[in-house]
Design a protein that fits this description.
By secondary structure, the chain is α/β, with parallel strands linked by helices. It folds into two domains: 186 residues, Ribonuclease H-like superfamily/Ribonuclease H (Nucleotidyltransferase, domain 5, 2-Layer Sandwich); 84 residues, HRDC domain (DNA polymerase, domain 1). It contains 14 helices and six strands. Helix 5 packs across helix 8 and helix 10 crosses helix 12. The longest helix has 21 residues. The protein starts with a strand and ends in a 7-residue tail after the last helix.
Length: 293
């Protein structure tokens, strides 16, 4: 059920894949990326299917995939995605690729009235194929090498049925007079761009427990949340991996903060005290809490 696939890890494999892909008039495309652990989503895998074979390109390797920009921008080549907005954003961001002539099976299914738009659900509804895909695999460690057999199977199946799904959905769109509307939607997808995250001015107010804080504690929490955002961006880790919301809340309520106090009261784990303790003290001091001597 996986179909033929090739992991592109050598110049020879890259040359062969390039030849086959550039000959194709339709490409099924997907990516795997990690937006859970990283501040700036990390692109970890690119899957391209030419109708016969799925080629797996590793963005963490040093091979040059720039030739993909030619078919991606070629209006004679159909590019088929499922929920491809983020795939397109990341491919533009990391490689400068441009896209035209897209077909997105999720958007097409939505226009046709489908309410449940996960790839496995759409494939089951329109192709009557039970695609065994688990949500857990989506958040697995795509940034680690080697990938597991289960990850490889998951990645391959993301493109395996896109072309027959396109054929079915495209015919239904035409039958219902929705082709022009769909093409406008797909053109909008081709224009999406990646944008850097910006801090939300009221992010601290969303933390559970904020409502019981004093005004001074609320100010300290706000400053800590602002610091965490900047630190997460600096180290390229999700904010919760720097300090959790509840760790920030406890720190904002600390009356006599010192590194020793953090350790004694268990406000932060030892490793986080070593990495961030001095900066946290500086934030609390600037917000009006004077550390004890």
């Amino acid at each position: 059920m996986n179909g033929p696939w090739i992991w592109i890890d050598s110049p020879d494999k890259l040359r062969d894949a390039r030849q086959k892909i550039l000959q194709s008039r339709a490409l099924c495309i997907d990516t795997e990326y990690d937006s859970f652990r990283y501040f700036r989503e990390r692109l970890c895998l690119i899957q391209i299917r030419d109708g016969a074979t799925t080629y797996l390109f590793d963005p963490l390797d040093s091979l040059d995939f720039s030739f993909l920009g030619d078919p991606f921008a070629d209006p004679a080549v159909l590019k088929i995605f499922h929920a491809g907005d983020n795939d397109i954003r990341l491919l533009k961001r990391d490689y400068g690729f441009q896209f035209c002539r897209l077909f997105d099976t999720q958007r097409a299914a939505s226009l046709l009235g489908s309410q449940h738009l996960a790839l496995s659900t759409v494939i089951d509804a329109f192709l009557k194929i039970d695609l065994d895909k688990t949500k857990k695999m989506q958040r697995s460690r795509w940034d680690r090498r080697p990938l597991s057999d289960a990850q490889i199977r998951y990645a391959i199946r993301d493109t395996l049925f896109l072309f027959p799904l396109y054929e079915t959905l495209s015919a239904l769109l035409a039958e219902r007079g929705l082709t022009e509307q769909a093409e406008a939607v797909f053109a909008g997808m081709a224009a999406v761009v990646w944008q850097e995250k910006i801090p939300h001015p009221h992010a601290h107010e969303r933390i559970p427990g904020y409502e019981v804080l004093t005004d001074d504690e609320r100010l300290r929490l706000r400053r800590l949340v602002e610091w965490r955002f900047a630190k997460a961006r600096e180290v390229d880790r999700s904010a919760f991996m720097v300090l959790s919301d509840q760790e920030l809340l406890r720190l904002s309520q600390s009356r006599t903060p010192t590194l020793a106090f953090f350790r004694k009261e268990g406000l932060l784990p030892p490793g986080k005290i070593d990495r961030y303790g001095t900066e946290v003290l500086a934030v609390l001091t600037a917000a009006g809490t004077s550390p004890a001597g």
